[in-house]
Amino acid sequence: MNKKLLAVAIAAALAPVAAMADGNVTVYGQMNVSVDSVDTGRTAGGVRTTQINDNTSRLGFKGTESLGNGLTTVWQIEGSVAGDGAASTVSGQTAATGGASTAGTIGTRNTFVGLTGGFGTAILGRHDTPYKLSTRGLDVFADGIADNRSLMGQSGNGATTFDGRQSNVIAYISPTVSGVTGAIGYVAGAENATLPAQTKGDAWSAMVNYGNGPVYASLAYEKHNVGTACTGTLGDPTAACPAAGFVLDGANESAWKLGLGYTMDALKIGFAYEKTSDNFGTKLGAPDSNIFGHHSYYLSGAYTMGANVLKLAYTKTGDLNGVASLGHSATGAKQWTLGVDHNMSKRTAVYALYSKLSNDTNGIYGLTGGSNGGVAASSPIFGGVGVNQAPSVFSLGMRHSF
Prior knowledge:
Layout: H1 2-9, H2 15-19, E1 25-39, E2 48-54, E3 58-68, E4 71-80, E5 111-117, E6 120-128, H3 130-133, E7 165-173, E8 180-188, E9 202-212, E10 215-225, E11 252-264, E12 267-278, H4 280-284, E13 295-305, E14 308-317, E15 333-343, E16 348-359, E17 392-401
Antiparallel strand pairs: 1-2, 1-3, 1-17, 3-4, 4-5, 5-6, 6-7, 7-8, 8-9, 9-10, 10-11, 11-12, 12-13, 13-14, 14-15, 15-16, 16-17
């Protein structure tokens, strides 16, 4: 398990170096489609629907070129594939609200060019943040309807997420030394500035991880500085860009996360803890500065029996820090998932799972399978609706990698 987690954490930027002969182009990808029986779990009359959903299918191209003196060019172009033929503006599934999968588009996933050598790897383009990479390998139901990002990685700024993929990224991944790898990334969030008075939002993300023998550990931190020169990820969501005078101008939010993994023969266990904070309350007129700050944790286990893998996961997120002072409480949620994978070959598997997400009285999370979720929407400031729902899903799917 730890080797796989480490490979995920050091980013896809390094994959071409290990996977290809010099100068070759590799075509790769994954098709992952499921039939899902979804219950919206609404308190005022839930609805059960049958859906055919894509689960982060993708198609990519990657390659390298040796430049001599130990220096190599690396590049990758990867896009999403709508395996169910449906189109939506949502990233991933939103089955709890009857959403569809993302339309097939090129370059929307990790797409970059860079250099690698003894110094490490540096890339420019669009990529998962180091914060996201630090624990993605711990999620045993990643990239599907039971993804733990339904509850984790949520941001108080409705225009972005902590556990996400960002455009306009410059990133550096260090060499691995004694099992330790580090990464840092910067997101340029003010490319569309048109007025001198506009503040320039940006983001920083960093992680360090350790993988050796049966042990995996990671620590990550990310900070978003909100500006008025909005480019869609770090701008203020309370007004349309590029107007000046946004409510959250100059505010910021941050998150840190700890990840742990351990392998004992056929049993693999994982744990992640996350805590977010912000100073949005000072801009929104709330009694508390840190209004959307909250903590979350995730526990997972996977047990391999021949060609079958039994999986169990539990995720919980707590109340938003500053909402109680506004006369609201119980804004958290929890989710548990049980599933089994049957590996028909090294590249093909069928799987089944059941997942249920239970909101607290004023919680508004859904089975988003990797989309941004609804922390901001659950606040009375942003006019949250549809609280206290308990969506669930039975899913049967097939996954093939190439």
